[in-house]
Write a sequence for this structure.
């Protein structure tokens, strides 16, 4: 089963390496996504997004009025408009415990289902501007996430316990 967003000839090579402690984080995000009601495909997107983003990037706060939250780097506008998280409650998503992951997974899933996968990934990467007028950067990011999510699903079918490994794959995206 392939996820939408896969464009033939437009994927990027995966950076496949070991990242100590990542297996536990992948498993925690998978569990949070599944606990929020995600299908395997939706959970794979959330885990792939965490692997690509790696952590909350506070350096992006304030850029164009943006503010990013959780290890998924979900932007404030996405959370408020499509994820069901009012601005005053968004800081709780920065927690790196089960409660923070659960809140972020619920919000990500709500936004993903409201916007559709392509709209969700465009909004995650480009904020409101990227969602309204996606550019090449937004497209590269979406293809990277889809490549990683498809790889994760393939590996899970081959070896169901795979999430516990510290194997990280995220795309080497030119220009991002």
């Amino acid at each position: 089963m392939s996820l939408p967003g896969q464009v033939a000839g437009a994927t990027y090579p995966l950076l496949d390496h070991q990242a100590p402690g990542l297996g536990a984080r992948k498993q925690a995000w998978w569990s949070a996504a599944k606990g929020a009601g995600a299908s395997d495909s939706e959970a794979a997107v959330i885990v792939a997004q965490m692997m690509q983003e790696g952590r909350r990037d506070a350096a992006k706060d304030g850029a164009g009025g943006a503010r990013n939250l959780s290890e998924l780097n979900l932007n404030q506008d996405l959370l408020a408009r499509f994820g069901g998280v009012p601005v005053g409650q968004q800081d709780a998503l920065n927690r790196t415990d089960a409660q923070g992951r659960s809140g972020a997974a619920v919000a990500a899933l709500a936004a993903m289902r409201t916007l559709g996968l392509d709209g969700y990934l465009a909004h995650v990467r480009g904020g409101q501007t990227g969602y309204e007028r996606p550019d090449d950067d937004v497209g590269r990011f979406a293809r990277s996430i889809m490549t990683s999510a498809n790889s994760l699903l393939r590996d899970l079918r081959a070896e169901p316990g795979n999430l516990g490994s510290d194997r990280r794959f995220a795309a080497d995206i030119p220009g991002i």
User: Anything to note?
Assistant: Helices lie at 22-35, 40-53, 76-81, 98-132, 136-158. The longest helix spans residues 98-132. Residues 1-9 have pLDDT under 50 and may be disordered.
